[in-house]
Amino acid sequence: MDANLERQGEEKLRLRMLPDIFPSMFIGLSKRNDKEMDSKATMNQRCAVKKQMAPNAREVISHIALNNIENVKSPITRRYGAKTSTSTTEIQTIDASNNLPVMFPSDKQEALRMLALKPATKKPVACGFSEKSNPEIDEIDLPDVFNHLAVVEYVQDLYTFYKQQQHVGRPTDYMDKQPHINPKMRAILVDWITDVHFRYNLLPETLYLTIYIIDRYLSLDGVKRLQLVGMCSLLIACKYEELRAPRVNDLMDIAFNKYTREEILGMEKTILNKLEWYLTVPTAYMFLVRFVKVAKADQELEHMIYFLAELGLMQYDLIKYCPSIVAASAVYTACCTLGKSRLWTNALERHTSFSEPQLLECARVLVKAHWTAPGSNLKVVYNKYMLQQFGGVARYPPAMSLIEA
């Protein structure tokens, strides 16, 4: 009788349906188990097929080297310059297949010399951009020629695409449509989110994407519980940008259990449906990273640029400007604040597509925000950039010459 019960239990387990969620994942797991059970003869047969497909031994070595990269200690993120570590043997194998020395040039002339050694390869057409067999690399990208994560061959096309896409799905002036909120309430919410973002040590991309989600949702729907929208926008941005997003319980604790778990998850679903899950947008931070590099900013200037840009997140008046002009204005205002000899170079004008007079109106908003920050009740950004780790750049007097002009 016990044997019959065991047999019936096995039959029930065998008839159990696979879950509907992520069916491809379960199929992939089953395929992986089948591969692990292959015999040595099957592996030899696969190697023979590979040799037939790639008769060139040098190409086979290159594929093996690329497929065997291990020991990755830090994840690849969207931020330029993310580092991965591989074994020395693998790096030498990859570089040997390209006949290139194993080094990363920091000198301009050395980068040019090494770039000449690299054979011109025909690149496939992607994303509607024209094919480039010998791409022209800008001077500021020469030190990153062999940093594959910097994609110097495509970076100009990428930012051309970003400048086009920044106008798609932009937030609009929504305060007239919101009877329950005003610009002051929005500034309080952004100040609170900046505080949470800094305490949790989240990525800068997360902060800028959070503010975009808030403004975009407020442009589409009326809101009464603004803090709930801010919490859910932060949760969505963390899930999109971070490796380890804060849990719902953490957000509930931050808000002193003002909202239940069901309310948070329900609002999260509502926001995503309103935005049609469109989250891959060029925020101001994407342009800031590029413009800081073009400006050849030292650490002090870089901190000042990000300080002014974060102050700009609280200013509702800047919502009418596209992200690229806000980022360019932050660079220009920072140069004026620190008294740089050349405020707006030809390289900055070429890469930003804005001249100095086009930035004045937006820059004045940033200067006023800097001027009122010390006496304001919303001082999270100001106190943050008074810290030594950010060079204490908030202590500099604002560039009042821009307002006087």
From TrEMBL:
<dbReference type="InterPro" id="IPR004367">
    <property type="entry name" value="Cyclin_C-dom"/>
</dbReference>
<dbReference type="Pfam" id="PF00134">
    <property type="entry name" value="Cyclin_N"/>
</dbReference>
<keyword id="KW-0195">Cyclin</keyword>
<keyword id="KW-0131">Cell cycle</keyword>
<dbReference type="GO" id="GO:0016538">
    <property type="term" value="F:cyclin-dependent protein serine/threonine kinase regulator activity"/>
</dbReference>
<dbReference type="Pfam" id="PF02984">
    <property type="entry name" value="Cyclin_C"/>
</dbReference>
<dbReference type="InterPro" id="IPR006671">
    <property type="entry name" value="Cyclin_N"/>
</dbReference>
<dbReference type="InterPro" id="IPR046965">
    <property type="entry name" value="Cyclin_A/B-like"/>
</dbReference>
<dbReference type="InterPro" id="IPR013763">
    <property type="entry name" value="Cyclin-like_dom"/>
</dbReference>
<dbReference type="InterPro" id="IPR048258">
    <property type="entry name" value="Cyclins_cyclin-box"/>
</dbReference>
<feature type="domain" description="Cyclin-like">
    <location>
        <begin position="286"/>
        <end position="368"/>
    </location>
</feature>
<feature type="domain" description="Cyclin-like">
    <location>
        <begin position="191"/>
        <end position="273"/>
    </location>
</feature>
<dbReference type="InterPro" id="IPR036915">
    <property type="entry name" value="Cyclin-like_sf"/>
</dbReference>
<dbReference type="GO" id="GO:0051301">
    <property type="term" value="P:cell division"/>
</dbReference>
<dbReference type="GO" id="GO:0010332">
    <property type="term" value="P:response to gamma radiation"/>
</dbReference>
<keyword id="KW-0132">Cell division</keyword>
<dbReference type="GO" id="GO:0044772">
    <property type="term" value="P:mitotic cell cycle phase transition"/>
</dbReference>
<dbReference type="InterPro" id="IPR039361">
    <property type="entry name" value="Cyclin"/>
</dbReference>
<comment type="similarity">
    <text>Belongs to the cyclin family. Cyclin AB subfamily.</text>
</comment>
<protein>
    <submittedName>
        <fullName>G2/mitotic-specific cyclin S13-7-like isoform X1</fullName>
    </submittedName>
</protein>
<feature type="domain" description="Cyclin C-terminal">
    <location>
        <begin position="282"/>
        <end position="399"/>
    </location>
</feature>
